[in-house]
Amino acid sequence: MKVKSYIKQNVIYLLLLLIFFFNFYCNKEEQDNKSFHTKLEEAELKFENVSFVKGYKDCQPTSPNCTYILFDYAKISEGNFKDEINSSINDEIIKISNQFLEGSKSKSIEEVSELFLRDYSNFISKNPKSETIWMMEVRGKVENYTPKILCYSISNVNFLGGAHPNTMFRYINFDRKTGKVISLNDIFTVGFESKLNTILDRVIRQNYMLKPEDDLRDKVGLFENKIEFNNNFAITKHGIKFYYNPYEIAPYSVGFIELIVPYSALEEILPLNSKARP
User: For the purposes of burial, counting CB atoms within 10 Å of the CB of 276, is it exposed (0-12), middle (13-18) or buried (19 or more)?
Assistant: First the structure.
């Protein structure tokens, strides 16, 4: 009888132990899943498209000989710091557009559009026989976004008469934890400047298969025999991309220059806690 009682007690103890571990595992799994979903929710942003177009005398961009201005870009509809980030994107879109309209101090895409069409109307009134059409297309899209950063690009392609169209491309990187724009000082170590310039010189020479002694003015067409970093950069999955618009460091005929610096080449100036690290 004692043996049976002992076995019975052990069985009950074993069952209680199994129930404890089962409950512990289920609770832990539930907590882990909750934590996982919370991280996903924190990292998630939802976007919507904004489209705005105005044509001269209400013509459509798809119509022949139509002078028009078009804005087509993504903005955040849901997510942390959506208002701050959307405001920065909107400001940059207007800033880029104003650069191509003489004396423009417009503060909205509607004002930019009105000035664009007014300038064209004045041009036609002074040149009634001209068949020249103008256009401006401003587009914005998400290039890369992670729980740490959001990389956004804005392009402005336009023709306002003259010898050729104009193009400007601009990158903005946002800190997902604050909504603020990230600068190079935020991602590199103090005193990074000269080292970064040296790295960029090596990258451009590799891209164009040049020797260290080759002159960048002769071989690439730059204004100077050197390349330096600018603040037009994108944090990508593979490295930091630096973008140089026409006329910035070379004539229009050279076009844009894009240099992607892999993270492996930036180890010396990229802290372990840098927002730019993948």
Answer: buried
User: pLDDT band for position 32 (50/70/90)?
Assistant: very low
Report whether 200 contacts 193 (CB < 8 A).
Answer: no
More confident residue, 216 or 27: 216
Query: At a CB cut-off of 8 Å and minimum separation 6, what does 50 contact?
Result: 71, 72, 73, 74, 75
Q: Residue 12: enclosing H or E segment and its boundaries?
A: helix 2-43
Alpha carbon distance 272, 219 (integer Å)? 36
Domain at 46-175, CATH from 3.40.50.11190, 3.30.565.40, 3.40.50.10490, 2.120.10.30: 3.30.565.40
Regarding pTM above 0.70, the answer is: yes
Instruction: Kindly state the tokens that stand for 31.
Output: 């907590």
